[in-house]
Amino acid sequence: MPRFFSWTEARRFYAIGLPIFIAQLSQVGMNFADTAMTGQASAEDMAAVAVAGSIWAPLSLLGLGSLLALPPLTAQMAGGGDRHGAAHLLRQGIWLTCGISVLFMSLFYAISWRMEAFGLEPNLARLAGGYLRAILWGLPGFMLFVNQRSFLEGFSRTRPAMIIGMLGLAFNVPCNYVLIYGKFGLPALGAVGCGVATALCYWFMALAMCYYLRRDPQYRDLHPLYAPLFSRRAFRRPRFDLALIWRVLRIGLPSALALFFEVSLFAVTALLLAPLGTVAVAGHQVATNFGTLMFMFPLALGMTATIRVGHSLGAARMGQARVAARTALGLSVMFALVIAVCTVAFRYGIVRIYNDDPAVTALAAHLLFYAACYQVVDGLQTVALGVLRGYNDTRIISVICFVAYWLIGLPLGFALARTDWIVPALGPAGFWIAYITALSFGACCYLWRVRFLHRLDDAAIRARVGR
Questions:
Q1: In the chain, what percentage of residues exceed pLDDT 70?
Q2: Which residue has the higher pLDDT, 467 or 244?
């Protein structure tokens, strides 16, 4: 009988996943600090950051998502004892970062001068464009940080990224204070200052991680950031390995597209709810923001599943990979049920943290019922995605995500929220019902794929992982 859950594996998940969770919270903390501190400058500055952020988030995630192949590939190499291969992969990831950064920085720069095309007033368009032109310089730094973090995650070392993420948050707040409000003789830059501060923070995190990798004796012999000129190992692998870079893109791009489809759906939903009025938009935003915060749990669990499954496969322990996958899925259900119960029990207290308007409070508390149901299917699909990445099985991810979100979720949400085609118009609740339906479809597809992989024999798994 196969083991469906292992408490020993669950303890490993805790040791690896808790630092990932805290690191992700530090990123959420940076976003919260940006919004809160620009809001203190002016409502227009906060609106500029929000509008520009809705462009920055999906497009930057499309670039960053291309690097999602690095953690499982590194874990497989580390599990198989190929430490120098993992360092070589990191260096190829840096080459890939350079190319992606040039492409997306050019795209952001072009968009920043055309913000009026989104229907913004001239001054708001100027501020939002200035924010984009400032933050785009931080994209290479953040991608370099993700490269190095992926290398360490492959070796199950997740604490350095947690510590540096917390330091990044601590660095971001005073930078925001100085540049947004104009302290120590500097001009008050508002939203643009927030973009400059975030870019500086990204480079601080990247350089801090570089310093750690250079100083840690465990990796000093690997020269992970550069191949020494006069080393025999340096000539065994090309400095620019196009085949390996293509493999990273082939595995990572489907995940990148899936992220883009998901984030852009939520952005489009906000636009479609705008005609329903301020209360509808505000109530939906409260539920969405809380859902994003709770998403950090399954996200950390999914990233840990990728590491554990990849490491087990690299060590040729196929049975252990199956146990790790099942344990991750079991933990996702347990965490989701606890979060769902707490969300329903404390929904009014949660809403009052965001807003005390009676109409907004009533709507948001109602939407949190749907958000509680959303947690279970979202946890399952996120962890199943992490398992599939551990197996390098990502080709169907973007297709399933596109069908779930854009062919099922968006049309169904519009029909339920804005029309009487199926039932009388439900407003924001209609979109949440559509989210749950779309995620349920995606989770069923991903779980079916995991089950298919687990029924393959060990030789077939080795063949698939090695491609």
A1: 95
A2: 244
Phi, then psi, of 50 in degrees rounded to 5: -65, -45
Read off the pLDDT of residues 386-409 as tens digits, 9 standing for 90 and up: 999 999 888 888 899 999 999 999
H helices present in 66-113, as ranges: 70-79, 83-112
Q: Helix or strand or coil: residue 156?
A: coil
Burial class (CB in 10 A: 0-12, 13-18, 19+), 67: buried
Angle (CA) 451-457-462 rounded to 5° is 100
Q: How far apart are CA 387 and CA 447, in angstroms?
A: 10
Q: Which of 351, 256, 353, 266 is nearest to 53 (CA)?
A: 266
Q: Which amino acid is present at 384?
A: A
- Which residues lie below 8 Å from residue 413, measured CB to CB, with a gap of 6+? 269, 272, 430, 431, 433, 434, 435
For residues 183 and 177, what is the distance between their CA atoms, to the nearest angstrom?
Answer: 7
Side chain identity, residue 344 = V
> Which of 70, 74, 67, 75 lies closest to 97, judged by CA?
67
Residue 463 has pLDDT above 70, yes or no: yes
**What's residue 150's pLDDT?**
92
Read off the pLDDT of each residue in 49-75 and give the average, rounded to a whole number. 85
E strands along 162-242, which residues?
Answer: none
Contact 450, 387 (CB under 8 A): yes
AA identity, residue 220:
R
Compute CA 8 distance to the chain's CA centroid, rounded to the nearest angstrom.
27
Angstrom distance (rounded) from CA 233 to CA 235: 5
> CA 242, CA 251: separation in Å to the nearest integer?
14
For residue 235, pLDDT beyond 70: no
DSSP character at residue 81: T
Structure tokens at 368: 């949190």
Pull the structure tokens for residue 410.
């968006």
Asked if 178 and 186 touch (Cβ cutoff 8 Å), the reply is yes
